[in-house]
Amino acid sequence: MSAPRVAVVIFPGSNCDRDVLHVLRGVLGADAHTVWHEERSLAGFDAVILPGGFSYGDYLRAGAIAATSPILAAVRAAASAGVLVAGICNGFQILLEAGLLPGAMLPNRDATFVCDWTRIRVERDDLPFTCAYGRGQIARMPVAHGEGNYYADADTLSRLEANRQVVFRYVDDDGAATAHGNPNGALHNIAGIVDERGNVLGMMPHPERCSEALLGSCDGRAFFEGLLASIAKRAHSVAGGGR
Amino acid sequence: MRTDAAVDAAFSLADVRAAGLRWTEYLEIRGRLGREPNRVELAMFGVMWSEHCAYKHSRRYLKLLPTQGDGVLQGPGENAGVVEVAPGIGVALKVESHNHPSAIDPFHGAATGVGGILRDVLSMGARPIAILDSLRFGSPAHAASRRLRDGVVSGIAHYGNAIGVPTVGGELVYEDRYAENPLVNAACIGIVRADRLARSAAAGPGNPVLYAGARTGRDGIGGAAFASDELDVASVDRDRSAVQIGDPFAGKSLIEATLAALDTGVVVAIQDMGAAGLTCATSEMSSKGGVGMRIDLARVPRREAGMTAGELLLSESQERMLLIVRQGEADTVAAIYRRWGLQAEVIGEVTAEPALRIYDGGTLVVDLPPESLTEAPAYQVPEEEPKGRALIVEAPESPRSVAEALLRVLGAPTVASKRAVFRQYDHMVQLNTVVAPGADAAVLRLKEAPPVAIAVAIDGNGRTTWLDAWAGGAGAASEAALNVACTGARPVAATDGLNFGSPEKPETAWDLHNAIAGIADACRAMRVPIVGGNVSLYNESPVGSIFPTPMVAVIGVLSDVSCALTSAFRDDGDLIVLIGEEAASLDGSEYDKIVRGRVAGKPVRVDVAAHARLVALLPALAADGLLQSAHDVSGGGLAVALAECCIAGHFGARCRISGSSDPELALFGEGPSRVVATVTRSRLAALVARCRSAGVPVAELGVVEGDALAIRAASADLVVGLDQLRTAWEG
Amino acid sequence: MTTANATAARVRLTILLKDGVLDAQGQAVERALRTMDYDAAHVRVGRVIDLDLPAANWQEAAREMCTRFLANPLIEEFEITRLDEEAR
Amino acid sequence: MTTANATAARVRLTILLKDGVLDAQGQAVERALRTMDYDAAHVRVGRVIDLDLPAANWQEAAREMCTRFLANPLIEEFEITRLDEEAR
Ligand SMILES: Nc1ncnc2c1ncn2[C@@H]1O[C@H](COP(=O)(O)OP(=O)(O)O)[C@@H](O)[C@H]1O
Ligand SMILES: [Mg+2]
User: DSSP alpha helices (H): ranges in B400-468?
Assistant: First the structure.
């Protein structure tokens, strides 16, 4: 059984691609590769990461132009084949604009960019992305965005809550999902969600920025570790099942 | 003035002035060429001989600066300086001003300032890894100043955040002297393998000249000449082309494409097209290489129809580079830029004959020796020592207690927390930021050379410089270096940004000369070479000159990032010591301005030899684990420094300041060479011994404890709760 | 700004956030205007996109590109107007 | 969107970059539209600001706030229209 292969998609204007690669390859020794946005296939990859940045300058709306890029057809195909897809920050915005996740991003409540540490509560530990966290665990992670104010209409929000699709929620120092703990005004303090099947995830905080103790927190490392471990486990169970 | 009217000149005085030249300069041009320049050539001389490009008034003073030292891979003379920070690893640094563009359009002016300095560093083959911004505005009590500040900050955020280079530090100072003429200086740090340094000297006759990046439009035409003019009321209505607009998206693609292009090994020389655009890049690259170029403007990618040769040559459209590529390899390099959605066109070739020949299709429009453009005349103007400078700022009510005075100084806009600003900057991208903005200096680990890290800080004090130019120049270099040393890093190189009024005023010329002498003296003592810099003159408005404001950015090396220190108190029971010279004064201090409402007297002059000992000692102490924290004493004096350490560390402290019988002086006096540090009880003796043997004074101040700052100074007792301190400081 | 080409229509798309969706930029502009002593209320900030479209089916094309791409129907609404002549 | 208040005017400010000024956003949108096979040209992207102003001097106030604050007259031009009735 070979090691999980992870794709990191690069759009013109992406700027966290090298950071995600550093953590995957340099810190965790994973088999990660870059994929240029003009590619049309993601065959052979077990997971796809859409990194942060300002794809196409974030002109029009954050993520809107990237969502029309050729690679998105491949991302869509991979997602429906059950491949793990994670969008971080701008990647989350792209997944929303592409309709792979429900809802939309509005400019931050204060109408300014915010780069700061936040606390997020891990609402699910039964997903491949979060299996290395404990349920209810609180992680310290930085955010850096101008449009991270998650919005969905009331029906969508109640569906998300009912299906337990909210994966990460901003909380304050006491672990409560208050306005004080919320850096951008996101409804229901939403910091990250998954699709109904649970293999497409979007999150605004940057786990790659907190995967080494030197940078102030290691709380993001479990995100990548969990992702890699669950791919390995899947492959193992498929192999074990003697398909 | 026009005494030579007898010569039948092709141009009138008005034409010459409109080109930004003096009549004598026009005559000089005719003399050098042995003929009349044509209109396009005259305009090219106008921008290349502007103060901004030619350093006509500052060149002779800049010679005072020390530029050589261990590890200098590239001193002044290139787009950025480069110093070796680990074996085979160079760090490029450069500062640049964008004051006038920011006064006219704060958002785009500041954004393009960031874009421009990034490309200077990129031109060295370096990947930009950090930005610092040093800002001066009028008092935030005025809505106009706040709007200017907010526009500038969002412009820096707009460009820096999108481009993925963290803004890790800077300065934000408010003085009414900057109300009409804000200062917006940005510095950039980049990383480059020493064997991959790129340079700008063109070479190799027959090699293609490749234009790469965004298309050319009518942006910023005459910007360089404009940046050298005094701002007057009419300038706000000047041609829209004076405003340059940046596109960080194209800028980011340009960085990636350029680094990939340099990786191919076929790029002979490269330079950004910044001030004076194509004119500057072609003439400087040719002149540095002792060669010429044949350029065809018809091949320049353009945004608008109907652009003239002059417009194409002078445009300051952003996000453009000029490359000399090895023969036969232009397509390889062009393909890289095109893949990133950028323009790439061969617009000419290098020639052995040192002549810059520019065609527009079949027509020869310019034929000049490159050095005629790059070697402008220099001027020496009379200097006069300023006398009796003093200002009444306002007449504030005197505080009822020293505690109240502390809260007031702590809450003064220049001293208070800048978090609301740096929170708008992405300061974490690239995963190097170990110590973030808000500290004395930012610390960045180098993934290329673990466990090495660098520390960077930028500093300057216009008020001090106005009162004593030498003290201001020496103080800027000394404080930036001390900030870096407080993190445990050894300062290795600096870049200076000199922001002054009109050099044609004798007092300003004196300030400029003495401030540079101060920087030179301090840097020489500390063995910190100045590897590049920027001069911005004519910072004048109808209400007068700005405070003369030299700024110095220093980088230092930490051989082991795990030894990095911050100012935050770390542990209950740690002992607080004051390391360094005791000399302090209220002249020119924050306290004098905020509490006493005056700016007057003589600030303390740094003792450069003693300061150099202090700066050398701190990294050694940090490396040996003798310090828990360190913070230099600057604006607001010892009381503010202690308060800042308490706030950062969430600890209180109990201190006693001995020596002075004047509590105001003891608490709020400012001096250049003092550091508040902490040490564990068990290491105090070792620390004291090390300081003594290095010839650096050290005194015990007190202990970290409780949740209030308590200071006894002469007859005064000050006690303020931590929460109160934080509220005052955070506003 | 208008086009001379008879076969092209100069079209303006005006895109605003739906009522009830937080308009942070509108609020920021409103606050700023008030500190400058302007008596402004209910400020909304949106985008305007002017472009040339083939005159033959400009309305249809404009509506489609707004729905698919230029506006996000979850949060935004749009208006389409023709600039170079009376809308037919 | 319109205001019921007789003393307030609902005003639209449309702010666009002048011709010739780099419109990076317009270029990016134009390229995207073309890759989506739309035949769009000369795309310019600007801002629109809708707001209530005192009906008495809405035109003057609007012009002043555009000139002083909302637009930069060096590089941008603006249009002022009234939304809730024919401009007088
Ligand atoms: N204050 C200064 N001290 C030292 N060197 C300086 C100073 N100002 C400018 N220089 C050097 O002079 C050269 C030309 O500067 P400049 O024209 O600003 O460069 P650029 O065209 O890249 O912006 C550069 O190498 C710069 O580092
Ligand atoms: Mg340069």
Answer: 402-410, 419-422, 462-467
